[in-house]
Amino acid sequence: MAQYYQFNREKARRKTGTFTMKEAIDDLLELYRLRSKFDETYIAAHWEKIMGTPIASRTTKIFIQESRLFLEFDSAPLRSELLMAKSKIISLINKEVGRELINEVIFL
User: Which tens digit of pLDDT belongs to each residue from 52-66?
Assistant: First the structure.
């Protein structure tokens, strides 16, 4: 049997009117379910802006996996200092992204 396409007006993604570029990109990211990956790469790319130059210059690895932020530093004193400030790091990152993306910080 052949399958036929039936247009469903209620599920249509086309919107009337004008939108800003930001709204269009946000809709695109939501439609293709790319929002979480986009936010993860945003954090890695803007790590210096979020945490500052001294911390970013001593960070050797940063990646996100399953709502956990993995960090590796080349400075042991900085690592121990940030170990005590995990909740502050989580709040800074989630504030920058605008939603709860990180639940846990793990130091390698």
Answer: 999 999 999 999 988
